[in-house]
């Protein structure tokens, strides 16, 4: 009996791998997914507890027409976030503030956006870009907590070209680049105004992963416990198959080195950051009567310390964001820690991590009650460091790899799930994404 040879092999059955497998199947390709673990999902899981749902990674996705299309094709209803959750806070001067800038700092920021060229300069870090384009106050009070919360990185070590380059293509003031970005989206499918912002699904993001897995396993093949260590051997076994590597950064590099000498120099250069999240269930909320999406905590540029000694990078208010996330009368807060400046937190025990969370919470809400439960998730290498080395690596991926080999993940087009979806659709549906 002849060996089945798939048109397309996907290595990794996390969100990225399942998405690419699904889109390849829709194009009529036969697909084989090879997964190292015993289950799909990667970082993303939605865990049901007696108190409510816990998201082990992202708690939602920024909506876009690609996600709307994907959900429709999978037969899923998108869950819109509650209007009251649109308020985002930054902790400054002892309070949670929606905009921590003074009137004079706002005037200075407006002047900068109207006059200062905003395209990232070659080799410029996010810190240098923010200081040059936005000014020191906006950098420390707004940009650092915002990007620090998303990328968990050190702004000094982050490449402005890699993180911001696609949004700022012209050497023009910020307002002109924003206008250019808006104009570039004309002609593309649009989503309804009431469906913009962060969205999810009933049962959490795991619902989307489950639907992708079901479709891929029914129309293609998923093989588990497949530890692929050598890309060259896989290419010998399946010389005519396309290959998409959809693993974490370290595994992708290991596979590439087995066949392409150009990537051997990146060994030890591409760093990743640990992330720890703790979802806390209780009967009171830190917001104490208010509502909102979450709060970020600015870190000192050099010491990574924050006001009041808060160790958390941010807190998400889960039950305010999406309905049905908890049982009646219970609040869910997810504390996010780790990243640059606090790698050590990922080596602590769950009991020690919970103790840190409760200490942070008392500093913010001394009248808080006794927690009902905690759910701790520790990822040792969750996020790549978006530095100049990763920027060079991405350029080499585009330059070196032949058309039948792709490498995809949160280190390619941006760190969020929205960026992964947009990039995937641009590859499989270029006419719609152009």
UniProtKB/TrEMBL annotation:
Broad enzyme group: oxidoreductase
Keywords, alphabetical: Cytoplasm, FAD, Flavoprotein, Heme biosynthesis, Oxidoreductase
InterPro entries assigned to the protein according to its UniProt record, in alphabetical order: FAD/NAD-bd_sf, Protoporphyrinogen_oxidase, Zeta_carotene_desat/Oxidored
Catalytic activity: coproporphyrinogen III + 3 O2 = coproporphyrin III + 3 H2O2
The organism's place on the tree of life at top rank: Bacteria
GO molecular function terms attached to this record: oxygen-dependent protoporphyrinogen oxidase activity
A GO biological process held by the record: heme biosynthetic process
EC code: 1.3.3.15
Protein's name according to its UniProt entry: Coproporphyrinogen III oxidase
Gene name of this polypeptide: hemG
């Amino acid at each position: 009996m002849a060996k089945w040879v798939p048109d397309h092999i996907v290595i990794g059955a996390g969100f990225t791998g399942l998405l690419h497998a699904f889109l390849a199947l829709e194009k009529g390709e036969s697909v084989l997914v090879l997964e190292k673990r015993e289950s799909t999902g990667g970082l993303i899981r939605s865990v049901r507890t007696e108190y409510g749902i816990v998201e082990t990674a992202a708690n939602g996705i920024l909506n876009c027409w690609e996600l709307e299309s994907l959900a429709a094709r999978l037969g899923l209803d998108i869950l819109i976030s509650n209007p009251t959750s649109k308020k985002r806070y930054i902790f400054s001067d002892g309070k949670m503030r929606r905009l921590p800038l003074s009137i004079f700092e706002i005037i200075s920021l407006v002047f900068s956006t109207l006059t200062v060229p905003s395209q990232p300069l070659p080799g410029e870090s996010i810190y240098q870009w923010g200081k040059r384009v936005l000014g020191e106050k906006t950098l420390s009070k707004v940009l650092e907590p915002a990007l620090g919360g998303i990328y968990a990185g050190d702004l000094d070590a982050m490449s402005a070209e890699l993180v911001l380059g696609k949004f700022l293509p012209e050497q023009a003031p910020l307002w002109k680049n924003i206008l250019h970005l808006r104009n570039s989206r004309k002609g593309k499918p649009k989503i309804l105004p009431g469906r913009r912002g962060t969205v999810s699904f009933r049962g959490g993001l795991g619902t989307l992963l489950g639907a992708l897995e079901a479709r891929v396993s029914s129309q293609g093949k998923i093989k588990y416990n497949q530890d692929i260590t050598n890309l060259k051997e896989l290419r010998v076994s399946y010389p005519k198959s396309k290959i998409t590597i959809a693993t974490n950064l370290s595994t992708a590099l290991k596979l590439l080195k087995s066949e392409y000498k150009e990537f051997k120099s990146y060994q030890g250069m591409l760093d990743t950051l640990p992330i720890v999240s703790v979802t806390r269930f209780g009967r009171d909320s830190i917001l104490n009567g208010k509502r909102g999406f979450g709060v970020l905590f600015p870190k000192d540029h050099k010491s990574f310390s924050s006001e009041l000694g808060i160790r958390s990078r941010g807190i998400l208010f889960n039950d305010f964001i999406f309905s049905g996330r908890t049982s009646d009368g219970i609040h869910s807060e997810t504390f996010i820690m780790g990243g640059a400046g606090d790698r050590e937190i990922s080596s602590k025990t769950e009991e020690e991590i919970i103790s840190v969370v409760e200490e942070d919470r008392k500093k913010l809400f001394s009248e808080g009650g006794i927690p009902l439960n905690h759910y701790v998730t520790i990822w040792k290498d969750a996020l790549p460091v978006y530095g100049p080395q990763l920027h060079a690596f991405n350029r080499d991926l585009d330059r070196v790899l032949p058309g039948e080999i792709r490498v995809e993940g949160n280190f390619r087009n941006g760190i969020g799930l929205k960026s992964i979806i947009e990039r995937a659709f641009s590859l499989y549906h270029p006419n719609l994404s152009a």
